[in-house]
Amino acid sequence: xxxxxxxxxxxxxxxxxxxxxxxxxxxxxxxxxxxxxxxxxxxxxxxxxxxxxxxxxxxxxxxxxxxxxxxxxxxxxxxxxxxxxxxxxxxxxxxxxxxxxxxxxxxxxxxxxxxxxxxxxxxxxxxxxxxxxxxxxxxxxxxxxxxxxxxxxxxxxxxxxxxxxxxxxxxxxxxxxxxxxxxxxxxxxxxxxxxxxxxxxxxxxxxxxxxxxxxxxxxxxxxxxxxxxxxxxxxxxxxxxxxxxxxxxxxxxxxxx
Length: 257
Fold this sequence. Notes:
single chain; alpha/beta; TIM Barrel; 8-stranded parallel beta sheet; 18% strand
């Protein structure tokens, strides 16, 4: 069984044919999926999708590049969404210095706010970090008293930093890039972190794995990611599928049914 721990079925590219992509995933033995919000509207849609399918769950949050577009009411309504039993995580939230849409200081202040909010609602964090890995770690470390647990979504930084996040109680999630031939660091990470801290994801419709790189991604492709990780670790597909599935069940605190 497989668990896609980060997908965007709430994205228009997948939402317009939702049942098709859900059925494709089920056919690939993807038994559970987490739909992740990136602003209030997409978070609300993630919850609606999770309520439609009993094997799909939602994570709600505001992406660092969307912070200033959100209204006061959006932040208030996000608190309401966090009370929904199908919402099992808070995210994606974090830091993104690549696009420079939002001032770094503003991003850092909101990141601290979300860290504290995760403790209030007892929800694990789904963290987006792009070209900001050191600051991401420093802010988490600074707010360690508020941490429950969390996952570094679509991790692409160094093994050394991965170990620091694991020391904070975090999980490392790998997606399509681990299958790319030139992706040396993700391959190094997966080969050297504890298996009980590994999650897998598609981040669909983005970052499709090889041989679909550059095409539309979908939750069914998490099977390809697990196959590649199994090959890298010289382990069976079944073992990696079982380990990552059970890790996700534990991490999100959902029923194994």
